[in-house]
Amino acid sequence: MGFSTREGSFMNREKLKKFLLIGLIMSSIMQVGILWDFSTHGLPSYFFRAFQDRVAPVSASIKKMKAELFSPKRIIVSTGASNWIVSKEGDTQDVYKALWDDAKDYISKIIAGEDIENVTMPDEKWSDIVLLKSIGIELDTPLSQDMIGYFLDSKVKNSSGAVFVKFVIAPWDSVNYNSTTVYLLDSNMHVYKYSLAMSQKNLKREFYDAELEKLNKLQDQEAIRNYMVFSESKIKLSYPIRQDMLVSAYGDKYDKLGQIDVTIPENFHIAPGSKLLDVESKLGGILGRDGDSYDIFTDAMGTVTMKNLNNQYRVYTDGVLEYKKTGNLTGDKGSKEQAFKNAMSFVEKLGLIPDNVQVYLSGIEETRDRFKFKFDYKAANVPIYFDIGLDGKNGDKIQNAIIIESNNDDALSCYWVVRNIELVKDKKKQYNVNFSDTLDKTFVEYPNIKQVKDFSIQDVLVGYRLTGENVGLKIEPMGLVMGGNNSIYSVKLPVKKGD
Fold first, then answer.
1. How many other CB atoms sit within 10 Å of the CB of residue 234?
2. Is residue 121 part of a domain?
């Protein structure tokens, strides 16, 4: 009996030693991590991976950003004779939400490849399709099916399939009352026709018919504008012009639009000759807890550089932030979805999006080892276009609000035009938005435009144009002619007399 007690005591001491040994090993690992963090200003991404869940939780703000980024450039409701743009704000917001929710359900079915019949159609038919009695959905940028699946939390049958640009939902084009017809235009200008079964949650034809009546009444009240599809005009031109483009040609030439007030945030307004302590105080917020690890210096142009072993930030005097990951670039290119998540995490980390704008995804590019994501802003649904030169970099222009390169592991680089943007309240004027007037004015102000190689017109619209020179001013909306190769020609919109 006594022997058993001594044996039990010995075993307990051995267990205690084992636990102490494990504790010392864990403590040593933690100490190495702390020293590593101190010396390199950031642990490698895999350091604590063994102690974390395999799937990191997605923050609420990223979930909100994800929902907002996947929204249409515009939704067009057509009777075949009239064409109306419905908006997420104002008199048409309810129908906008209903139509977009319905469209997302059909898009999910297409990418999942479930119980659908599809036919490839002649490409030239698209200009006829948009004239159907239908609902048209235009996206801000072409999206691959894997990205659409990510946004909709939907499975994808063929991630390398057609890249989506536009949809037309035509319930009246289906012989079967319990199905609807969806047309898709891809990035290669190929057209596909799908016959999709209606589920219980899909909108029925009675809903569409009732909404057409409501929109017709809003047009009579001049609450919404009736647009023309350019192909209806039958105008023959000496240069290519997008045939399915919506143009303001009917009714009153004028729309009431607001100005925007654009400034550089105070903490990014760095004057040449500023003291480094003041600069550090202003910009410390973007460095986070590792702020003490950064060296900060300025050059003769007034550009501020903040650098440690892994990261480099530059703030230019015109309010442009540049970021580069300078340490060992670990990780491979990986999936577009994961690279996009890393880009959004970087956007969330910096938190520099103005409060009064809508953010949209305006471009995706792919290179050998990374992805490039472009983001832009809208103010009251009017797009904002950037044309910002970089100090000390002759000829370099930034044409998006945010440009982020990332891979499977992290964000690798970023350009961000940091601005406060406020819609000027109660200062709306009536601007001439007529398509023909804008086009005529463009040809007068840019007399050599037609001599540009491969000149074409992709769109004529209203937007704000921001340069490095118009900071601190009230910016008026302009007429914008969107040419080929991402060229933009801007002209001042005439204001109605008396405004």
1. 6
2. yes
Is the model's pLDDT at 349 over the cut of 80? Answer: yes
In our burial notation (b when 16+ CB lie closer than 10 A, e otherwise), range 390-421 reads: bbeeeeeebbbbbbbbbbbbbbbbbbbbbbbb
Cα 389 vs. chain centroid, distance in angstroms?
22
Q: Are residues 115 and 229 in the same domain?
A: yes
Sign of CA dihedral 348, 350, 353, 355: positive
Do residues 221 and 344 both lie within one domain?
no
Is 310 domain-assigned?
Answer: yes
247 within domain boundaries:
no
pTM of the model: 0.84
Determine the average pLDDT of the residues in 58-79.
84
- In terms of DSSP bridges, do strands 393-398 and 228-229 run parallel, antiparallel, or are they unpaired? unpaired
Neighbours of 289 (CB within 10 A): 7
Q: What is the domain extent for residue 32? A: 2-40
Neighbouring CB atoms inside 10 A of 271's CB total 9
133 assigned to some structural domain: yes
Q: Is 416 helix (H, G, I), strand (E, B) or coil?
A: strand
Amino acid, single-letter form, for residue 333:
K
- Distance between CA atoms of 172 and 168, rounded to whole angstroms? 12
Tokens of 89: 């704000």
HSE toward the beta carbon, residue 19, CA cutoff 13 A: 6
Residues 163 and 211 in one domain: yes
The answer to whether 225 touches 251, Cβ cutoff 8 Å, is yes
- Would you say how long the chain is, in residues? 499
Report which of residues 396 and 475 the model is more confident about: 475
Identify the three-state secondary structure at position 354. Answer: coil
Task: Write out the H or E segment, with its range, that includes residue 134.
Answer: strand 134-143
- Say which residue the tokens 């009064």 belong to: 356
